[in-house]
Amino acid sequence: MDEPPVIKTRRKGRTGTQSMLIPSEGMVAEALRAAPPGRLSDLGELRRGLAQAHGADACCPVTVQRHLVRLSQDGGAPFWRVVDPDRPFARRMAGGPERIRARLAGER
Q1: How far apart are the two ends of the chain, measured CA to CA in Å?
Q2: CATH number for the domain including 75?
């Protein structure tokens, strides 16, 4: 990864703070390529792995979702490995749930 991680501190609860990784599209694409082909991986696990790899407490879910939508449009990474076709978010992907199911089946 050539891009330096962006980590912001945010409030968590009344008195605590949390370091939040704001991942680049490249970071997300690299993590998607590392996901096992042909099976659905947990998106939360992907975010936790990114946060841990960069020394943050958490990874921004909104940013990851935006990158997934963009990656689905340009075919830049295997987004179908972490987007559950049975969840509403799958409808935001290019090709929708049907494309996700077909791509997963094609990798098996």
Answers
A1: 28
A2: 1.10.10
- What torsion do the CA atoms of 35, 77, 68, 87 make, to the nearest 10 degrees? -60
Are the C-beta atoms of 20 and 62 separated by less than 8 Å? no
CA pair distance 103, 108, nearest whole angstrom: 9
Are 83 and 77 in contact by the 8 Å Cβ rule? The answer is no
Q: What pLDDT is attached to residue 98?
A: 97
The answer to whether the beta carbons of residues 5 and 23 sit under 8 Å apart is: yes
pTM for the full predicted model:
0.88
Residue 53, domain extent = 6-107
**Using CA atoms in the order 16, 8, 46, 86, what is the torsion angle rounded to 10 degrees?**
80
